[in-house]
Amino acid sequence: MKNKSNFLLLAALLGGLLFNFLFWKERLALNLFIYSAYLLMITVINPDVIKSTKLKIYGLAHILASVLVVINNSDLTLVSYYISLILFIGFAHNQQIRTVFITFLAAVIQMVTVPFNALQNLSKVRIGNLNLKPVFKLIKYIFIPFIIVTLFTCLYSAANEVFGNAINTLLTNVSNLIYDVLHFFFKDLIINRIAFFIFGLILSGGLIITFFNKGLALAELKYKEQLLRIRSEFKKKTVWFEFAQVFTGDLLLRKLALKTEFITGLISFIALNLLLLFLNIIDIWWLWLGKGKALAETNYSAELHDGTNALIFSIIMAMAVIVYFFRGNLNFYSKSKVLRILAYAWMIQNFILIISVFIRDAHYIEFHGLTHKRIGVIVFAILCIIGLATVYFKVAKQKTFFYLLKINGNIWFVLLLAFSIINWDVFIVKYNLAHKETIAFDSDYLLSLSDKTLPVLDKNRMKLQHTESKSEYGTEIAKPETLAANQQKLNQRIGFFKERYERVSWVSWNLQDWTTAKYFNNKQIRD
Predict the structure, then answer these.
(1) Which of 372, 394, 411, 447 is 20 to 30 A from 316 in CA distance terms?
(2) What is the Cβ-side half-sphere exposure of residue 514, based on CA atoms within 13 angstroms?
(3) Which residues, in sequence order, are bridge partners of residue 399?
(4) pLDDT of 252 higher than 50
(5) Collapsing DSSP states into helix, strand and coil, what is residue 127?
(6) Helix ranges (DSSP H) in 209-295
(7) Measured between alpha carbons, how far is 93 from 106 in angstroms, rounded to an integer?
(8) How far is CA 48 from CA 44, 51, 94, 391, 425, in A?
(9) pTM surpassing 0.70?
(10) What top-level branch of life does the organism fall under (predicted)?
(11) Cα–Cα distance between 472 and 302 in angstroms, integer?
(12) pLDDT in tens, 409-434
C-alpha cells in the first residue's frame, strides 16, 4: 500500500513539473500530446487500474485526439482532446461505468476531490521509519474547520463592509509578506510560475490519483438496458410524500390505469401525426418541389435561423414524447401494437422534417456560402437522425432510457473525433473562394478565421472583395470595405502570425503553424 501511495504522489509531482515545463507561456499543440503520453503511461503502470479492452479503446481515442490537435490545431480538436481526456480518466478509474455521461461526472468528481485523495495517500506514505500518518491526521482535523471558517468569512465580508475591508487588508499584508520573504531568499523566483506549477500539480494529481469512493459506479449498475414489466407499490412513505399528499389528497395513491395511458397516447400520436403531416405537406410543396415563391426570392437567413432551430427542437421533443409513452408497462400492453405503428409513423415524419432542414441549409449555403454555423446545422441534423434511429430501436426492442443514453453517448463521442479529423477553417475558405461568383461573398468572415487559412487567403488575395448581397426587400446591403482594405487586413494578420510564431518554443509545434510559416518563408525567398 505504501509503495502504491508513494508512486502515485511522485507521479503527480512529476506531472506538475512536466506541466510547468510544457505549458508555461506556450500554445496548446505538441505539449498536449507529450502530457497525454505521460498520463497514459502512469495510468497503465498504476496497479489500481484494470488493463481492460475499454481502457485500451478510450486510451487510443485520447491519443488520437491529441494527435489531431498537433495536426489540425483547431478549437474543435481541443474540445475533442479535453472530452476524450476526461472520459479516459473516468473509465480508467471507474471501469464498471457504462455511459460516457456518468463517466464524465465521475472524472470531474475525482479532479474536484483531489485534496481529499491526496491527503489520504499522503497519510500512507512512509520515509524509512518516519510515518506521516499522525501529521496528516492532524491536518485532516484542521482542514474541514478551515473550509467552514473561510466560507463564513466570505459571507461576513459581503455582509459587513468594515469587516470586509479589514479582512482584505489582512490578506494583502500577509500575501506581501510571503512575497517579500520568498524574494529575499530566492531573488530570481517568479511567483506566477510557482502558482502555475501548483495548478499543474493539482491537475496532475486529479488525473492520476484514484478517487476512493466508487458509489457513483455502484449506483449506475442498478440501471438496466432492457425493459421489464414491474408492479409499483407505495411501500414506504417519505416526508416529501406526506407533504405532497396534503395538497393532492389520495391522487398519489391512485395508479394511472394502463388502458387510460394507452388512450392518452393514442389520441396524442394521432393528433401529432396529423399536425406534422400538414407541416410536411407544406414543406414538400414549397421547399422540395419549389412550387411556392422562387428560390432566389426566399429569405434563407430567416428560414434557417428562425425555422431550423425550432424544427430541431421539435424533433428532440418528439423523441422525448415517444420515450415518455414507451417508458414502462405500456410496452407490454396487449393493444400497444397500434400505438407502436403510430409512433413509427411519427418517427418517419420527423425524418422527413430533418430532410427539410437539410434542404433549407443547402439552399442557404448555395446562396451565401459555408460558415461554421451552417455546418453545425448539418451536424445537429445528423445527430437527430441518429437519435430517431436509436429511439426506434428502443421502442421495437423494448429498451430503457438508460440504453438510449449509453448508445447515443458513445456515438456522439465517435462523431466528435470523426469531425475533428477535418480541417474545417481551410475547408470553408477553399469552398467559398471556389464559389465566389455564385455566392454572397463575405471576405470579413474569411479574414476572421484561424491562422491556418492565411496561405490560402494569400494565394487568393485578389478575390478578397465583397460581392453584392441582397436583403429580403431586394435592396443592396452596403459593404464599405474595398479590396485594398481587405488586403491590408490580410497583411496585418500575416504580420501578427509571424510575431506569434517566433515567441513560442518547440513544445508549441503543430503542423498547421509549421506549414503556414514555411509558406511565408519560402514566399519571401522567392520575392
Answers:
(1) 372
(2) 13
(3) 226
(4) no
(5) strand
(6) 215-220, 239-248, 258-283
(7) 9
(8) 9, 9, 10, 37, 42
(9) yes
(10) Bacteria
(11) 9
(12) 999 999 999 999 999 999 999 999 99
